[in-house]
Amino acid sequence: MHLLASSQLQLAGSMTVIRLSLHVLAATVWVGGQFVLAGMLPTIRGLGEGAPKKMAQAFGRLSWPAYWLLIATGVWNFIAVDPANASSSWNAAFGIKMVCVIAAGLGTFLHTRAKTPKARGIYAGIGALASIAALVLGIAIAG
Ligand code: HEM
User: Fold this and answer.
1) What is the mean pLDDT of each run of 10 residues along the chain (143 residues)?
2) Rounded CA gap, 62 and 6, in Å?
């Protein structure tokens, strides 16, 4: 709800723009990158036996910094949104989002360490689903 007398849309302040742009940019790399990599996998497999592993390692050098940037800017977000004023449904969504963030990181990490294709697939699925859930809940709490 707008507290201003006029119902005109207002621009976000510059610190808000920087904070949310960094958070969303990191989310595009962490979440979007997983889907782009998965979509390119059939082509990558055709490049040779070691190609999927090399591509996964190259992606990890981009995606893990993005994950840590999500955590850092996420803490910044949490401080900035004045959580003392949050409704119980906001708190619940935020709490579930934190569980998803941990599941996303843990699932992805275990995916990189898995020894069998089955385990690799299961952990990749957990990581991807938890990442999407964290993204959707992020939009819900920012809304
Ligand atoms: C996998 C990790 C994460 C993803 C994919 C993610 C994604 C998002 C997205 C897409 C938004 C919406 C931005 C907007 O619409 O302007 C958002 C908002 C938010 N995120 Fe995250 N996030 C992640 C981790 C975190 C962490 C670790 C925290 C807290 C420690 C956090 C706290 C927040 C808060 C408080 C908002 C609302 C910001 C606002 O209303 O200004 N996020 N997140």
Assistant:
1) 69 97 98 97 97 96 98 98 96 98 98 96 97 98 91
2) 44
Residue 39 counted as domain residue: yes
Domain count, the chain: 1
Let me know if residue 129 belongs to a domain.
yes
Whether 116 is covered by a domain: the verdict is: yes
Q: Answer for the pair 44, 55: CB distance below 8 angstroms, yes or no.
A: yes
Determine the distance separating the centroid of ligand 1 and the alpha carbon of 4, expressed in angstroms.
Answer: 26
Which structural domain range is residue 45 located in? 15-142
User: How many angstroms is it from 138 CA to the middle of ligand 1?
Assistant: 4
